[in-house]
Amino acid sequence: MRDDATEILGSPPPGALLFTCEHASNRVPRPWRLRPADRALLATHWGYDLGARPLTIELARLARGTAALSRFSRLLIDPNRAPEDPSAVLLNCDDGAPTFNKAADHADRVRRFHAPFHERLDRTIASRKPRFLCSVHSFTPVFRNNARAMEAGVLFDQHDDLADQLLRALRAEGVRAEANEPYSGKAGLIYSANRHGTRHDVPYLEIEVRQDLLASDRLARGVARKVWSALRAVGI
Predict the structure, then answer these.
(1) Distance CA 61, CA 204 (A)
(2) What CATH code is carried by the domain that includes residue 99?
(3) What is the rounded distance in angstroms from the CA atom of residue 102 to the CA atom of residue 81?
């Protein structure tokens, strides 16, 4: 099932896992016209989370669960930020300024992309009643000249014990994983998982994986197997 904002894959029984990917796409549909500099920016981590889409789809396949994927670039509006957050629509970033964000109609972007994405997630959760929600993201190996040795992060703002168990299980799979890195859920940076997990009383976490480990579909499938093994090990 697919609309302008969201794609839902899988038709599992009630109670199956739900994997969301808020930065799955760098799509900028009409009426926006892209300049070469925009296209270059959209191809980077500013436009989307490289490798996160195939990772999410493979996790849902292994778990016989559901994948919920965004169909628009985070540069249009970021569904992992509250709509009123000033960083939801970026006017500038480290690698340039998207021309399609000059004089952006914020309300229109909420109406067309942000709100429909989250409303679709609400309907999906209400109808399928997942036992666990996992938001899937990726991060760059180097950010602002700082190399990141860690391979994965488990982000949380609640469910601390579950996060600690998953962290240990990932390490047992040979993954160099850290808690609330490279971003912290405690700092409010897992908006989507928190919004839907809290609203529907579903345990939730966010997983971040370094992008060079997801550089091909084959690599993403390998990472998915390790993450799925870790999820099973903690009884999720």
Answers:
(1) 19
(2) 3.40.630.40
(3) 19
* Whether the Cβ atoms of residue 206 and residue 156 lie closer than 8 Å to each other: yes
- pLDDT tens per residue, range 53-85: 999 999 999 999 999 999 999 999 999 999 999
Specify the number of domains making up the chain.
Answer: 1
Calpha distance 83→77 (Å, rounded): 8
Phi, psi of 143, deg, nearest 5: -135, 120
Domain membership flag for residue 40: yes
Contacts 24+ apart (CB under 8 A), 185-189: 185/155, 185/156, 185/157, 186/156, 186/157, 188/157, 189/80, 189/155
The tokens of 58 are what? 């493979």
Angle 38-150-143 from CA coordinates, rounded to 5°:
30
Q: Residue 95: which pLDDT band, with cuts at 50, 70 and 90? A: confident
Residue 177 DSSP label = E
